[in-house]
């Protein structure tokens, strides 16, 4: 069976819904196709169910991808406050948390409801429970193969996201479709994901301990909360670091960011203390015990030589380890890599290889840091595609 519509959007997730709403507002007949039973399943699990839907400050530096500048144009045309205005128009309560993160006060379901009800009011058709298996082009437009049916439209938007968190129906179909139209796919890897440490790691077995710490990798440093897990590290600091970490790269932990340890050893408050006592007052005890070099813990702080003070500082502020990997797609909030942005217009999201084919959201090689940036990219790119199509 073939249905006819102006535009087919594959994926009724964050970006697909925004694109549908925008295109339908401009008078287009839009059909959204998704294999889920209901739209926006990833939005519903976002931010622990409260959905960190944007951030007060959003710019290209908040994203990773081969072409860091690709997102600039769409971000410049969709500010965080436009999303806030949309939600406020529908009476959705929101709140600002630290680092400029904006969350729903009630539930992420509010965001999904706003987008789906707007789409329905504008006449968008939802083809839910339809697994897309491929797409091709014929003389009249695009043909979409779904299990059990075939759909046709003159323009096609691929908004099927990334394979991260498959528990809510995430797949790599968007990348496969892009490839079938001749697009290059930048290698896909899980990000915003806990990191796994090697067997016998000096800090293994500290699961449950959390503290504010710095993590550096690939020339980037984040100072945020860090959580030790059974297999490695998680928490905002580790998730952010995972965006910049590649296999084989080392991580450097700073467990007392901003603290001058050699100076601390000299200070009147600490000079007579044992090194162990001094550091267990500043760090969780089990962590401090693991970090302090064995021969230094039982010595008085002021008695350490300059070299020993530096050794202590390095142990606490430059703990270096090479993770063995990540917890993988099942525990990743996003995936980096995807459709090569060099082959897509940054203004319209249209393919530079196939007229009438558009990409929006996480299917593209654009991944955001923790803090509402991934959803904001989904909104901004969906808006850009919906305005251009
Ligand atoms: C646990 C978790 C928490 C998160 N928290 C946040 C947060 O608080 N803030 C933030 O900014 N970002 C967060 N993210 C990331 C954010 O949710 C995504 O970046 C965003 O949803 C991507 O939007 P999208 O439209 O590109 O893809 P999606 O929202 O994933 O939508 C893609 C749609 O395509 C459909 N689909 C996939 N394959 C097929 C197929 N073969 N056939 C038919 N349909 C298909 C899916 O069912 C889905 O509905 C979180 C992600 C996870 C997993």
Strand tally, please? 21
Helix content: 25-40%
- When the domains are counted, the total is 2
Ranges where pLDDT stays below 50 over 5 or more residues in a row are none
Question: How would you characterize this protein structure?
Answer:
It is a single chain. By secondary structure, the chain is an alpha+beta fold. It is 28% helix and 26% strand. It has 2 domains: 2-188 and 337-388, 3-Layer(bba) Sandwich (FAD/NAD(P)-binding domain); 195-326, Translation factors (Elongation Factor Tu (Ef-tu), domain 3), CATH 2.40.30.10. The protein has 12 helices and 21 strands. The strands form 5 sheets. Strands 1, 2, 7, 8, 9, 10 and 20 form a 7-stranded mixed sheet that branches. The protein has a 7-stranded antiparallel sheet with strand order 17-16-13-14-15-12-18. Strands 3-6-5 form a 3-stranded antiparallel sheet. Helix 1 (14-25) packs parallel to helix 5 (109-121). It starts with a strand and ends with a helix. The structure holds flavin-adenine dinucleotide (FAD). Flavin-adenine dinucleotide is lined by residues 11-16, 33-36, 41-43, 45-47, 51-52, 131-132, 159-161, 164-165, 169-171, 173, 333-334, 361-363, 372-375, 378. Its cofactor is FAD. Residues 189-333 form the RsdA/BaiN/AoA(So)-like insert domain. Residues 6-387 form the RsdA/BaiN/AoA(So)-like Rossmann fold-like domain. Pfam families: HI0933_like (PF03486), HI0933_like_1st (PF22780).
């Amino acid at each position: 069976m073939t249905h006819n519509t102006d535009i087919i959007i594959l994926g009724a997730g964050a970006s697909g819904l925004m694109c549908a709403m925008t295109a339908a507002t401009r008078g287009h007949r839009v059909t959204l196709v998704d294999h889920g039973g209901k739209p926006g399943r990833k939005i519903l699990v976002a931010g622990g169910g409260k959905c960190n839907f944007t951030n007060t400050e959003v710019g290209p530096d908040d994203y990773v991808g081969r072409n860091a500048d690709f997102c600039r144009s769409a971000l410049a045309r969709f500010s965080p406050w436009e999303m806030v205005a949309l939600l406020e128009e529908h009476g959705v309560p929101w709140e600002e948390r630290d680092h400029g993160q904006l969350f729903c006060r009630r539930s992420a379901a509010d965001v999904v409801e706003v987008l789906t009800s707007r789409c329905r009011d504008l006449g968008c058709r939802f083809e839910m429970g339809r697994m897309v298996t491929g797409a091709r082009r014929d003389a009249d437009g695009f043909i979409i193969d779904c299990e059990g049916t075939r759909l046709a439209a003159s323009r096609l938007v691929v908004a099927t996201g990334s394979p991260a968190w498959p528990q809510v129906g995430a797949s790599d179909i968007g990348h496969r479709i892009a490839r079938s139209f001749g697009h290059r796919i930048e290698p896909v890897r899980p990000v915003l994901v806990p990191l796994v440490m090697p067997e016998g790691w000096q800090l293994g077995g500290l699961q449950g301990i959390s503290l504010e710490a710095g993590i550096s990798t690939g020339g980037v440093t984040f100072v945020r909360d860090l959580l030790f897990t059974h297999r490695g590290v998680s928490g905002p600091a580790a998730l952010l670091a995972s965006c910049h970490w590649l296999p084989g790269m080392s991580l450097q932990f700073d467990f007392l960011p901003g603290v001058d340890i050699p100076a601390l050893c000299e200070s009147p408050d600490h000079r007579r203390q044992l090194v162990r006592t001094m550091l267990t007052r500043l760090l969780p005890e089990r962590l401090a015990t693991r970090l302090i070099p064995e021969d230094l813990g039982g010595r008085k702080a002021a008695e350490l030589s300059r070299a020993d003070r530096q050794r202590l500082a390095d142990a606490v502020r430059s703990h270096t380890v090479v993770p063995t990997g990540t917890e993988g797609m099942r525990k990743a909030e996003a995936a980096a890599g995807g459709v090569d942005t060099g082959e897509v217009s940054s203004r319209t999201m249209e393919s530079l290889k196939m007229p009438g084919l558009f990409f929006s959201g996480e299917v593209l090689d654009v991944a955001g840091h923790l803090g509402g940036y991934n959803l904001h990219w989904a909104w901004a790119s969906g808006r850009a595609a919906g305005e251009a199509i």
